[in-house]
Design a protein that fits this description.
It contains seven helices and six strands, in the order βββαααβαβαβαα. By secondary structure, the protein is an alpha/beta fold.
Amino acid sequence: MARCDAFVFLDSVQYSRTSYTARCLIKGVNGKAQWLSVPVFKKGRYYQEISEVEIDNQKEWQKNHNRNIISCYSQSPYFGDYQWLSERAYKKKHDRLSKLNINLVKALAKDLEIIPQYVNLSDMNIDSRSSELLIDVCKKLSADVYLSGPGGKKYLDQSKFKAAGIDLRFVTYHPQAYPQLWGEFIPGLSIIDMLYNCGPQAVKRIIKSDIP
C-alpha cells in the first residue's frame, strides 16, 4: 500500500475460509504465534463474496479479542497510544466483515501517513475473473503498473498483462526483526505487534526502508 497510488479492496471476490480475511496472528505470552479470528456465518454460504460475509455477533468475540490483546501487549511500550484502535474495532458492533476490515485498514494507513486513493471493487462494475479482473481494474483506473505479492507468480498470466500494456511487478516484503515481548522474534504477525512494541515513527521508518 505504501508503494501505490491506488489501493483496491477486492471485496466482491469469493471469500476464502483459509485466508487472512477474518483472522490475523499475534504473539502470545508463551512466545508463540496465535490466531485472532473474527467469527463469521459460514454454514451453507460456500460461495459468498467477501462483501456478503456477515459477522457472528452472537459470540462475544470483541470482548475476547480485547482481553487477549491486553494480556499479550499491555506491557509493550506503545500500548497506551493505540487504545483508539481497540475502541474502533471493539466498541461498536459490525455487521459485515468487509466493512470492519476496510475501516481498520484505512485507519491504520492514515496513522502511518499512507494515503493512496481507495477503491472498492464492488463499486467498479467489473465481472471478469483472475488476471482479466486485475487488468480491467487497472484499465478503469488508468493504471500502467500493477503491484502483486510474490504469490501472484503462481496464478497470474504475465503475458496477458504485457498484451494489455500493463507492467506487472512482483513485490517481495522482507520482514525486519524488531523488539518483541515474550522471547525470540516471530515474523508475519499483525501490524499491531510492531505498533505496540515500536511505535508509529519506527514503523514508518521500517516500511519506507523497504521501498526502492
